[in-house]
Amino acid sequence: MGVTFNVIEKEFQRGRTSAYQLSILIGVDSLVYSVYEGTTEQLLLLKSLSLPPNKNYAAEYASELDSAIGREDFLHPVYQKVRIAFHDVPVSLVPTRLYNEEEKATYIEGLTSQPADGEVYTDTIEPLRLRVVCKLNEAVTDVVKARFSNVRIFNAATPFLIGSHRSIPEGVEETAFACFREKSFQLALFRQGGLLFYNRFEYQAASDVLYFLLLAYEQHGLDPDHVPLFLSGHLLKDSEIYKILYRYVADVSFLPGPSYVRFGKSISSLDPNLLFPLHALLLC
Question: CB–CB of 243/122 below 8 Å?
């Protein structure tokens, strides 16, 4: 799973969870969740759990996920809002003006690694006028619906894209954002506030990351000598990935902490963008 988290601020009060917001990111081998105060959006709790690796959220994974949630005491109370996003799930992006609810299953027909027994989910990204369409294993979504009565379910692409769009610096015409997990990363390119490109890539080496990035730049007419690249997620400044990106992209930097989250004393020592999509769920 890589980096693990287990931090609770002293301001957290179990008796006030009905006024708190819960965000959860679920991957094939891990679950990480955060709790925010409902009005100030102060981050009160951050914790991660390991799960047995199970590619593509196979049906057997549902029982493992259910057991993990059942063992986690902080996931039992009722929260004001619950948002859950799934990592590592292929998506299709459809312009809102072209989207047809009755045809939603057709938008993902060509995607690989989809569950045979699944339910089609659609997220809306209003600022980008896009629909995010994916297929999730029904046994898995049944677990989270049973555990959280007021849950909203997303693909992890949605908070990443919404958070990235919100992070575009004022006056910058073209930008790129990359958010890393242990062996995959999401990449989004923007021009004049509109989305040019999005994809999630799996990689084995730093050279793979560079190849995917420069190819996307080239295909969309972006110049790595001028277009800034903003990084987030599980990536360190002394990593081989950062070093090679720094060599080939003139303006590469880590995103500042999200302005829409207040970080408490205990959690402020952590890199605020390690879990960029988790925090960005607050915007969904």
Answer: no
pLDDT in tens, 68-120: 999 999 999 999 999 999 998 899 999 999 999 999 999 998 886 777 678 89
**164 to 107, 113, 170, 242: CA distances (angstroms):** 24, 26, 13, 19
| Region 169-254: CATH code | 3.30.420.260
In terms of phi and psi (left: phi > 0; alpha: psi -120 to 50; beta: otherwise), the region of 86 is beta
Residues forming beta bridges with residue 190, ordered by sequence position: 175, 195
SS3 at position 84: strand
Distance (Å, whole) CA 163 – CA 120: 23
Residues 111-135: b if buried by 16+ CB within 10 A, e if exposed: eeebbeebbebbbebeebebbbbbb
The 10 Å Cβ neighbour count of residue 197 is 16
Question: For the residues 57-61, what does the mean pLDDT come to?
Answer: 74
pLDDT single digits (tens) 167-221 = 999 999 999 999 999 899 999 999 999 999 999 999 999 999 999 999 999 999 9
Class at the top of the CATH hierarchy for domain 6-90+120-162+258-283: alpha beta
For residue 209, which of 170, 228, 171, 183 has the smallest C-alpha distance?
183
Domain 6-90+120-162+258-283 shares a fold with domain 169-254: yes
pTM listed for this prediction: 0.95
Residue 117 confidence (pLDDT): 72
Per-domain boundaries in the chain? 6-90+120-162+258-283, 169-254
- Asked if 17 and 33 count as a contact pair (C-beta separation under 8 A), the reply is no
Distance CA 38, CA 33 (A): 15
